[in-house]
Design goal:
The chain is built from 4 helices and 6 strands, in the order E-H-H-H-E-E-E-H-E-E. By secondary structure, the chain is of the alpha+beta class. The chain has a 6-stranded antiparallel beta sheet with strand order 1-2-3-6-5-4, covered by helices on one side.
């Protein structure tokens, strides 16, 4: 059996725990092993936090909102950075794939697909004094396959997957 869902969230800090709780609830209900669920939820938290922080220009958003309904997140002006991001999760058979997409400037060209087979290469960690950049490294460590990509003129996409383990009482155990 397969499950998939997609959330369109505002680029606000409060959306990050909402996405994490939604994923954890889905995985608990399906019967996924709690350790796997935890790893994926931490990776999702980091990807969502990245989308909130870097997924568009906050100042542009404030200027756009003058005279507009602040609750109408779908009413975006063409050619402007979006005030939202999308989280999609697929639980299919033995694998869970999660994708977080925003409409910010995207990733620098050095970010590429990293798989568990490539982890023998020296990891590229941020400097110890760096203010940011650790979240992407966490995602790489917690997931089996990771892809950091750009949608031309439309923002960044982080997708990652992990092989699932199931509890003995799982409702959706792989047959």
């Amino acid at each position: 059996m397969s499950i998939w869902w997609s959330l369109h969230l505002r680029r606000e800090a409060a959306s990050v725990p909402l996405a994490r709780r939604f994923l954890l609830g889905t995985m608990e209900t399906a019967g996924v092993d709690p350790d796997i669920s935890f790893d994926l939820s931490v990776a999702l938290t980091e990807a969502c936090a990245n989308a909130v922080e870097h997924g568009g220009d906050h100042k542009v958003q404030e200027e756009q909102s003058v005279g507009r309904d602040p609750w109408d997140v779908w009413d975006e002006l063409p050619g402007r950075a979006s005030g939202q991001y999308r989280v999609t999760a697929y639980l299919d058979g033995e694998k869970c794939r999660i994708e977080v997409a925003d409409s910010g400037p995207g990733f620098p060209a050095r970010r590429t697909l990293r798989t568990s087979a490539q982890r023998h290469d020296p990891p590229q960690y941020p400097p110890l004094g760096a203010e940011d950049g650790r979240g992407l490294c966490l995602i790489e460590q917690l997931a089996d396959h990771v892809h950091f990509g750009n949608r031309p003129g439309r923002g960044a996409v982080v997708s990652f997957d992990k092989v699932l383990k199931w509890r003995k009482d799982a409702l959706l155990m792989v047959s």
